[in-house]
């Protein structure tokens, strides 16, 4: 039987918790007196359904059952886990806990509070031992972090059980050993927020400039290594102590308006350098550099695919370069070179070679460039017509490895009004690593059937097909899988 | 003719600048009195060559020429752009600028300084107008940000030219209109650093716990939207003003040790809300949420592919789920279902359908799972043997769209000691969207040729092949591209 989560508070955070439990197979009962809560929670869950399954490389469990409870009692009765995400008012949270504990005195109650300490949450509670901080980050259904903060009154076994529950729904419970206002992450967010308010107020930068200063630079680093591991690398071969010696003196300089700084002494340097060794010492600085670089390449490529943030800079840079290096008019008496690619880190399989689907990807890039060349570009697709691939035959003849340069060429075997039959060679240096024979059909996308291509395209395509008739027919053309040579 | 960059200072930052210019086709002359500089710069360039080309979807320009100059004069003579990255000592920087301007009084000189203001850098200079801050972020060859800070004495046309130069080498020059200690980004880094030192010193958290608190949560957000756009979303439909009203009061609370806060009043709220509207108002909150989510999915998938940071959490979660839902023993009297996939956002092409190379990817996942099923798993590949795909034939029969669930089944057409001939169906609901016929060969990877598979594998494979002989032979098997039906 599915387990049950009681979710008290149905805003963006409560809705995010509901979505995470639900999509991980838990039944969820939400209580929120706001009559708009079902709509709001529904919208968060709709977002989550579009997003969370994309992170799973296996089947998702059957979705749990969502109900909206009329009372707190109804929401938490029989629950295996309870999460409170009401407004940040301590009196309100105390009232909610009191109502919960009338019916569920022994059930773990995590609070999404940004700032209150667990000992504050537990004040006057019937059973303080079950109440703790479980502070998530928006969007709750995607970001793994949940700060788990117990107090001295907490039940250690219950806390371990709650951490296990959060792991089961795909989260990363970070156990914070000493309670403190705003836990850990929000202390950083608050420091940055305060400095940002100064910069805007003093007219140094706008909100947009500040966002660019973050997401074009250190923001990209922080998604993968955080603060200290990043600085360990910055220290270079001399490591963390070198970094601290270099930047220690800045603590007393007006590099931020936030001047309440700890004393910078050998004790602090040793403490941090020692912890950094324990954290990252099993990787050399060179290894960390390469790990960092491959992570950053991955992030940057994602943003490039999405034409967003730093990815826009990369797309602009490509466009600039294309302009600076114009393509010569292709020679139609030969197979036409239509694409140049480098084998990227994400294209490598466990054999250390380019993974087989990337040969088809390279061919698609080549054929897409050819289609643009004959006028069937993205603007043309926008008019409702396109070339679809009906059939493909691939021969694997060699291997491509990380960083190697590949080119893709197109030979037209046959073309008529509706059909485009091409032979693609993926070439590395002097050798052909793969050939791909494809039949493409010109399609009316709305009607969902083939139709004749317009004159504007045929006028460009047919002369190439005519010229290519003079080329020798490739041996692999017309071959079927397993055919004797 | 290639342009020339003079790079003064050959540490991690100077080396990063050298790499960026070089790989973008500029000649580079480096001056650094450290006899180790050529080795150090060489290592940074080696890292950059492994990384920077992966960001380009077109051919890279021919690499420039790298030289190590014996003097500053030699390094900057004839340079079109000069970048200074020596230690953070103002007297040293002044001496370097004086030497540069003896031979290159009119050439732009960017300084990599983390903290000095341009007016400080320009003190006593022969030509203050050419000296400005161009502050990059490590690794300089990957991160686009360069903070460009002029002073009142700067030449506006020269600054615009320098920004254009940085764009040409793929950077994002962020023009900072008012000079301030530590510019913008480093003020945030310094604030976070100060707070982090407190947390470590007070024993609240270790360096590792702090890094997790960043990279499992808000660090992932900041690589794509920064601070204000993220908070605009957090404000929900009510936007930035709502967010500020909610978190304004916290400014006076001890949520960080950094208590020097600006006065929180309507004027500040209006200023920020207005700037946020100008920055992000062309997207609705719902749109921003979806953009954010797709970016985060991309980042998280990258980390998952790399088994790093938040990606480790996702891999653990998949493994947990697999354990909780054990595969039933497959029924060998039918094509065997070997994979279940959801169509992910990155798999969609400009037609709105799953892009063709992903059908082969889905088939690879299916066949890989089958190979694991017969014992040819990753541990087996580690012994030096593997199955390689020699040949593939694909029929596209239907379309798959974002989020749809697909399953992949395997029918063995024939198997012997060396060969494995399979027929894969990619199924959506009741319909087959693609079929793939493949010939795989068992390979001795070291010798680079086919060889017989061991008994341990054949004992599992051959009975399946025997059982599948009873299945009807698929019509598409043995078909060649363009064959009449």
Describe this structure in words.
The structure is a homodimer of 485-residue chains. Chain A is an alpha/beta fold and 485 residues long. The first copy, chain A, folds into 3 domains: 172 residues, NAD(P)-binding Rossmann-like Domain (Rossmann fold); 106 residues; 142 residues, Thiol Ester Dehydrase, Chain A (Roll). Helices cover 41% and strands 19% of the residues of chain A. Chain A contains 16 helices and 14 strands. In chain A, the strands form 2 sheets. The first copy, chain A, has an 8-stranded mixed beta sheet with strand order 3-2-1-4-5-6-7-8, sandwiched between helices. In chain A, strands 9, 10, 11, 12, 13 and 14 form a 6-stranded antiparallel beta sheet that branches. In chain A, helix 4 links the parallel strand 4 and strand 5. In chain A, helix 9 packs across helix 10 and helix 10 packs antiparallel against helix 11. The longest helix of chain A has 21 residues. The radius of gyration of chain A is 30 Å and the shape is globular. The model of chain A has no long low-confidence stretch (mean pLDDT 90). At the A-B interface, helix 2, helix 7, helix 8, helix 9 and helix 11 of A face helix 2, helix 7, helix 8, helix 9 and helix 11 of B.
């Amino acid at each position: 039987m599915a387990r049950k989560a009681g979710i008290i508070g149905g805003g963006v955070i409560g809705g995010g918790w509901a979505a995470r439990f639900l999509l991980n197979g838990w039944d969820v009962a939400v209580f929120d007196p706001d009559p708009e809560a079902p709509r709001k929670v529904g919208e968060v869950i709709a977002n989550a359904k579009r997003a969370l399954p994309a992170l799973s490389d296996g089947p998702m469990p059957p979705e749990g059952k969502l109900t909206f409870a009329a009372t707190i009692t109804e929401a938490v009765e029989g629950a295996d886990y309870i999460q409170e995400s009401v407004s940040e008012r301590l009196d309100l949270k105390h009232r909610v806990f009191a109502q919960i504990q009338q019916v569920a005195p022994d059930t773990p109650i995590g609070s999404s509070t940004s700032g209150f300490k667990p000992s504050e949450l537990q004040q006057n509670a019937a059973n303080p031992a079950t109440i703790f901080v479980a502070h998530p980050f928006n969007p709750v259904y995607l970001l793994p972090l949940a700060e788990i903060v117990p107090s001295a009154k907490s039940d250690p076994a219950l806390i371990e059980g709650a951490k296990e529950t959060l792991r089961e729904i795909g989260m990363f419970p970070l156990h914070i050993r000493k309670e403190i206002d705003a836990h850990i992450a929000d202390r950083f967010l608050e420091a940055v927020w305060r400095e940002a308010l100064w910069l805007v107020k003093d007219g140094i930068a706008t909100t947009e400039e500040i966002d660019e200063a973050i997401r074009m630079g250190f923001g990209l680093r922080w998604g993968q290594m955080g603060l200290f591991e990043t600085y360990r690398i910055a220290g270079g071969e001399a490591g963390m102590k070198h970094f601290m010696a270099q930047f220690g003196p800045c603590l007393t300089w007006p590099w931020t308006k936030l001047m309440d700084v700890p004393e910078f002494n050998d004790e602090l340097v040793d403490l941090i350098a020692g912890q950094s060794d324990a954290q990252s010492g099993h990787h050399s600085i060179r290894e960390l550099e390469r790990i960092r670089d491959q992570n950053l390449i991955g992030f940057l490529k994602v943003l490039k695919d999405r034409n967003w943030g730093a990815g826009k800079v990369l797309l602009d840079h490509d466009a600039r370069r294309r302009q600076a290096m114009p393509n010569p008019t292709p020679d139609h008496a030969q197979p036409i070179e239509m694409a140049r690619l480098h084998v990227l880190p994400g294209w490598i399989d466990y054999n250390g070679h380019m993974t087989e689907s990337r040969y088809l990807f390279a061919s698609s890039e080549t054929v897409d460039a050819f289609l643009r060349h004959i006028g069937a570009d993205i603007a043309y697709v926008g008019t409702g017509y396109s070339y679809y691939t009906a059939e493909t035959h691939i021969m694997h003849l060699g291997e491509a490895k990380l960083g190697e340069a590949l080119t893709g060429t197109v030979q037209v075997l046959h073309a008529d009004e509706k059909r485009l039959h091409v032979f693609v060679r993926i070439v590395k240096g002097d050798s052909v690593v793969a050939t791909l024979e494809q039949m493409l059909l010109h399609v009316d996308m709305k009607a969902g059937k083939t139709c004749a291509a317009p004159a504007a395209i045929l006028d460009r395509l047919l002369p190439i097909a005519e010229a290519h008739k003079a080329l020798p027919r490739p041996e692999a053309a017309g071959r079927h899988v397993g055919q004797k040579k």
